[in-house]
Design goal:
Largest sheet: 7 strands, mixed
Strand order of the largest sheet: 7-6-5-8-9-13-11
Number of helices: 14
Structural class: alpha+beta
Strand content: 25-35%
Helix content: 25-40%
Distance between the termini: 36 Å
Shape: globular
Length: 541
């Protein structure tokens, strides 16, 4: 799919999402605010342990920073930078005045933390414990899901049928990545500097070496750096080393935090993505797609593909913007991370979320950057164009399905005519028509009770009916009956704006039914703003 079509589909999805949210604003304004809580982001430490690790570092570790040598910009090598803020774990962040990379202008290496652990033995367990937890069930499951996508992408791009494909993961930690790579058919090795992580990986029979043990420099079909480069004091040197280990027709793949992500730009020192590290080097380098591409070219690579991974939590960003949430500072207070949002803001965030994810992933301003590159003197893998096309198509299809958009290949979405909601042949108690909408407060006697039944609809050709509104609680279903037999049905159980689209077959005597779709979720409370009929000629039935 072309970039132009990507933009059209994403723009149409945003417009549709905004329209749905706006239709719910009037009702939302009459409802109680929504309380929301965010999960603790560090599954390998409890929240109390994580807060304790930050407290110890602030008191005993941060003072050691004054003794660390300064370093230039890790991207362009420039020495002029502006101080911009201090992170929640007491690291100074600067912006390069030349290329605008954000970075900690100090040599942060594992030696710093060895000195820290020697003076504060109680702090060592946080570093070791985190590595140990990486082999426990919950953390392994999260790792596997992420690595499974990455190695499936690499396998698709390299497309070397029948031949063994080798990969080296630099900064592999306990090497969960290597196990997943092996399952995808790779001959997988790893490099790691953390001695505790290497010890754990070797106990699991994974092929992991310290950097100084790989004196011979074998070349690999793929070299990976999964969320590693941001932790390295000399990323240019690390990339040049990676280049020397990559075949000329091989692929470099990496992921890093994205400086263009809205939560990083907006929340700055309150963002959990920005930390220098309480027990090992943290995110001391932060790049945009532009600055990372510059660094890759300096190291002898040519970027081939950049996309986003994951998405900004829009409810968290809205709460931070409205003064209801303080990001990392609230997490450090250890009490439940809960905030309250006006219902309209919550509905808007939830409705925009699928379109926002597509925009952030497709145009590379999601929280994580996923990057594929080749050696500048090499060739691109044969399977790369098919992979990027498949990713774009999946993203487009997801938006089309989520927002019931007309497929971009068939032109813009067509509007139809609204059916008269105030003139039903039958409706149950608890449903009223006012101001052009149906208001449902259904204390129906039992699940799946009919709440509203339209007048008979005749369709000469294939058509659509779209039911739009906002669900406040319970579940709602819309379906078509013909001769008392169902021909189509859709339902929603998610509070907030919705649109249900029913495909109408040619025929006579069709009735649109709105039901209380219980399924254990309770009676429906909803507003139906519009029931739209779209026929071949947009004529009313």
């Amino acid at each position: 799919m072309t970039e132009e079509n990507s933009v059209k589909v994403a723009a149409a999805a945003l417009a549709e999402a905004a329209a749905r949210a706006l239709r719910a604003f009037e009702a939302a304004g009459q409802r109680l605010p929504r309380r929301a809580s965010l999960p603790h982001p560090f599954s390998n430490l409890t929240r109390e342990e994580w807060a304790r690790s930050i407290s110890l570092w602030r008191e005993y570790g941060a003072p050691l920073l004054k003794d660390m040598p300064e370093r230039p910009c890790p991207t362009c090598g420039g020495t002029a930078s502006d101080y911009i803020f201090q992170s929640y774990d007491a690291y100074p962040y600067h912006e390069c005045m030349n290329c605008r990379t954000w970075f900690v202008p100090l040599e942060i290496t594992h030696d710093l933390f060895e000195r820290y652990f020697e003076s504060v033995p109680a702090a060592r367990r946080f570093g070791d414990y985190t590595d140990a937890q990486a082999v426990e069930t919950a953390a392994v499951a999260a790792d596997r899901a992420r690595f499974d996508r990455y190695y499936a992408a690499l396998k698709s791009c390299l497309a070397r049928a029948g031949a063994p494909v080798s990969t080296l993961d630099i900064g592999c930690g306990v090497a969960n990545s290597l196990e997943v790579a092996s399952e995808h058919g790779f001959e997988a090795e790893g490099i790691e500097v953390n001695r505790h992580a290497v010890s754990l990986a070797r106990k699991l029979a994974r092929h992991v070496s310290f950097p100084d043990e790989m004196t011979r420099v074998p070349q690999f079909d793929a070299v990976t750096m999964w969320e590693t480069l941001e932790h390295i004091a000399d990323p240019l040197g690390a990339l040049r080393d990676a280049r020397g280990r990559l075949k000329t027709d091989g692929l470099l793949a990496l992921s890093v935090p994205n400086l263009n992500a809205p939560d990083i730009r907006w929340m700055r020192g309150d963002s959990l993505q920005i930390h220098g590290g309480p027990a090992w080097p943290g995110h001391i380098n932060l790049w945009t797609p532009k600055t990372l591409a510059f660094l890759l070219r300096r190291a002898g690579f040519e970027p081939l593909h950049m996309s986003g991974q994951f998405s900004t939590n829009l409810e968290e960003l809205a709460a931070y913007s409205l003064g209801e949430w303080s990001g990392a500072r609230d997490y450090l207070r250890v009490d439940s991370p809960e905030f309250e949002l006006p219902r309209a803001a919550s509905d808007l965030a939830q409705t925009l979320s699928p379109a926002a994810i597509a925009w952030q992933e497709g145009f590379a301003f999601a929280p994580i950057l996923f990057v594929l590159a080749r050696r500048s003197d090499g060739t691109a893998p044969a399977g790369l164009p098919a992979y990027t096309a498949a990713v774009a198509e999946a993203r487009r299809r997801g938006l089309v399905d989520t927002y019931n958009l007309q497929d971009a290949s068939h032109g813009p979405r067509r509007r139809g005519h609204s059916l008269d909601l105030a003139d039903p042949e039958w409706q149950a108690e608890g449903v009223s028509a006012a101001g052009g909408r149906l208001q449902i407060d259904a204390d129906a006697s039992g699940p799946f009770a009919y709440l509203w039944r339209s007048k008979a609809i005749d369709a000469a050709t294939h058509a659509q009916i779209r039911v739009r509104g906002a669900l406040f609680s319970g579940g709602l279903s819309a379906g078509l009956l013909q001769a008392e037999s169902w021909t189509a049905q859709q339902s929603t159980t998610s509070p907030g704006p919705f649109e249900l689209t029913l495909e109408v077959p040619p025929g006579t005597g069709l009735n649109l039914i709105i039901c209380n779709n219980d399924h254990g979720c309770g009676p429906a409370v909803a507003d139906i703003d519009c029931v739209e009929f779209v026929g071949a000629d947009n004529s009313l039935p």
